[in-house]
């Protein structure tokens, strides 16, 4: 039985909070809601030290997204955050030139956060 990838909000809660707020500020209400349920399918893997981008859906590397694709650039306080969206689904989050993302250590160790 395959396990689903973790929710981005479980691994990078601060990132998801920031994305939701920035999307709201841009009038992207539907995406602000959707960003809370995207999954961490994989990291970019390009090896560039300024890149922390993540894949939130399966898609062949190096292939265009095709019809229904749009870029949603956001205005963070530092670096760049750009979403690749296809038919309302967030496929990829470009995270460039920003301080290192803080991982939720409890999630990384397989423990659920205490309530």
Structure description:
The radius of gyration is 14 Å and the shape is globular. Residues 111-115 have low confidence and may be disordered. It contains four helices and five strands; from the N terminus they run αααβββββα. The chain has 115 residues and is an alpha+beta fold. The protein has helices at 8-11, 13-25, 29-34, 105-108; strands at residues 42-43, 54-55, 69-74, 80-86, 89-96. Strands 1-2-5-4-3 form a five-stranded antiparallel sheet, covered by helices on one side.
Outline the secondary-structure elements.
Blueprint: H1 8-11, H2 13-25, H3 29-34, E1 42-43, E2 54-55, E3 69-74, E4 80-86, E5 89-96, H4 105-108
Antiparallel strand pairs: 1-2, 2-5, 3-4, 4-5
What is the molecular shape? globular
In the sheet with the most strands, the strands line up as: 1-2-5-4-3
Strand/helix succession: HHHEEEEEH
> What is the mean predicted local confidence, pLDDT?
91
Query: What is the number of E strands?
Result: 5
Radius of gyration: 14 Å
Number of helices: 4
Give the end-to-end Cα distance, rounded to a whole number of Å.
Answer: 29 Å
Classify the secondary structure makeup into a structural class: alpha+beta
Largest sheet: 5 strands, antiparallel
Helical fraction: 10-25%
């Amino acid at each position: 039985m395959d396990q689903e990838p973790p929710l981005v909000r479980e691994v990078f809660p601060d990132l998801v909070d920031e994305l939701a707020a920035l999307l709201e500020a841009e009038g992207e209400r539907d995406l602000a809601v959707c960003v809370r349920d995207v999954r961490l399918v994989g990291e970019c893997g390009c090896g560039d030290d300024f890149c922390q981008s993540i894949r939130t859906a399966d898609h062949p590397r190096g292939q265009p997204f095709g019809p229904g694709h749009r870029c949603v650039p956001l205005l963070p306080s530092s670096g760049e955050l750009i979403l690749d969206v296809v038919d309302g689904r967030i496929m990829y989050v470009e995270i460039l030139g920003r301080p290192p993302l803080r991982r939720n250590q409890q999630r990384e160790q397989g423990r659920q956060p205490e309530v």
